[in-house]
């Protein structure tokens, strides 16, 4: 028995030495296995600095530059996203004129972007710099993974809701104008429901929808914070929180611009027939002219808002589209355990490519405040008043 035990130890030791030599040859250290996650993460969701570091802690020059470039870009995104969106939130709270139904969607997007920058991206950088190891409590790990799973769905669903609001403002201008107060309260309630729904959906793994024996977060015997969830959850989340909202948003913006075109043609016909107004009295003609002028001003204002929100929605979808598509395809291939039908190429997508697409999605959080300032005049005016310390 002693001889058998000794031989078993020698075999294990030899296998361990062989394993280390293989890893030395490829300059790869052992890393935790990450289960495919939802809209944010994929199979290779987090950039792995271990692919460029060997066991001695040194790294080749080129990969090290790539790693430092990723970290530098993400730090810049965090800085601009935090400062820009905090300014947007302060401006919104400072000026009561901004508290209209359409601007509640901007406020919701800004809050989601602040959480993304302050919690999601910040701990992402921390893990990159510490070989993916988690240095904080299990509770904070669960908070990070939960925030990871609900911030983008909040942004996508809020953008989808804003497209419906803009479609209603363009296609039903009179009803929209006469029901502004009611719409403001409805928008606020809808946004609150979106946040509650997104958080609850992100907490489903905590409520038990995870693999048997798995722990969503940090295991007691592991120094890593990871996503251990079902592939079905990942695919369902991507469909519900990216594909369907994107299609709904595109549908309403298409119909909105179609209504804008119809309204413009109708207004031209009305203006061409205005020559017959000489048969009316002067007071009636003046009143009709003033009404049409007011309608034109309101219509132009709604068109400008619609274009601004369409730009915000388009940027959000375009920046997150590459990473989300890879996530869906990799999760589907992983679920089917297949490398056919192109799955082999999809599963072999490099970590650098996935990380680049992830940074592109994160970049949207820093891009939004720039769009708000450039496209919304009242935001610019209130911001200038805040900067110059003027009061209304």
From TrEMBL:
It is a multi-pass membrane protein. Its main location: membrane. Keywords: Cell membrane, Disulfide bond, G-protein coupled receptor, Membrane, Receptor, Transducer, Transmembrane, Transmembrane helix. GO terms for biological process: adenylate cyclase-activating adrenergic receptor signaling pathway; positive regulation of MAPK cascade. GO terms for molecular function: G protein-coupled serotonin receptor activity. It is found in: Cell membrane. PROSITE patterns: G_PROTEIN_RECEP_F1_2. SUPFAM superfamilies: Family A G protein-coupled receptor-like. Gene3D superfamilies: Rhodopsin 7-helix transmembrane proteins. One of its GO terms (cellular component) is plasma membrane. InterPro entries: GPCR_Rhodpsn, GPCR_Rhodpsn_7TM. PANTHER family: ADRENERGIC RECEPTOR-RELATED G-PROTEIN COUPLED RECEPTOR, IP13425P-RELATED. This is Octopamine receptor beta-3R-like. It comes from Paramuricea clavata. The lineage of its organism: Eukaryota, Metazoa, Cnidaria, Anthozoa, Octocorallia.
């Amino acid at each position: 028995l002693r001889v058998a035990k000794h031989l078993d130890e020698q075999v294990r030791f030899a296998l361990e030495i062989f394993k280390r030599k293989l890893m030395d040859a490829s300059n790869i250290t052992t890393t935790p296995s990450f289960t495919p996650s939802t809209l944010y993460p994929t199979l290779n969701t987090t950039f792995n600095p271990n692919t460029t570091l060997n066991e001695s802690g040194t790294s080749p020059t080129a990969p090290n530059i790539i790693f430092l470039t990723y970290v530098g870009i993400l730090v810049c995104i965090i800085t601009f996203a935090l400062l820009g969106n905090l300014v947007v939130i302060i401006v919104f709270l400072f000026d009561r004129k901004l508290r209209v139904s359409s601007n509640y969607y901007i406020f919701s997007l800004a809050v989601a972007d602040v959480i993304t920058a302050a919690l999601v991206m910040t701990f992402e950088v921390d893990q990159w710099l510490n070989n993916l190891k988690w240095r904080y409590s299990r509770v904070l790990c669960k908070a990070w993974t939960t925030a990871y799973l609900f911030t983008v769905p909040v942004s996508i669903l809020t953008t989808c809701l804003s497209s419906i609001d803009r479609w209603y403002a363009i296609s039903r201008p009179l009803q929209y104008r006469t029901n502004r107060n009611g719409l403001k309260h409805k928008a606020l309630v809808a946004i609150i429901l979106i946040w509650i729904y997104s958080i609850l959906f992100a907490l489903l793994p905590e409520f038990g929808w995870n693999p048997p024996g798995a722990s969503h977060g940090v295991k007691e015997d592991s120094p890593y914070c990871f996503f251990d969830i079902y592939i079905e959850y990942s695919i369902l989340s991507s469909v519900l929180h990216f594909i369907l909202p994107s299609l709904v948003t595109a549908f309403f913006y298409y119909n909105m611009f179609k209504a804008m075109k119809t309204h413009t043609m109708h207004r031209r016909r009305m203006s061409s027939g205005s020559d017959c107004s000489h048969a009316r009295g002067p007071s009636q003609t003046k009143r009709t002219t003033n009404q049409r002028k007011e309608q034109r001003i309101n219509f132009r204002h709604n068109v400008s808002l619609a274009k601004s929100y369409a730009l915000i929605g388009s940027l959000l979808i375009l920046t997150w589209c590459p990473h989300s598509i890879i996530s869906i395809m990799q999760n589907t291939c992983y679920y089917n355990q297949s490398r056919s039908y192109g799955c082999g190429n999809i599963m072999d997508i490099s970590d650098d490519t996935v990380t680049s697409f992830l940074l592109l999605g994160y970049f949207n959080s820093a891009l939004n405040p720039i769009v708000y300032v450039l496209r919304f005049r009242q935001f610019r005016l209130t911001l200038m008043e805040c900067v110059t310390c003027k009061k209304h």
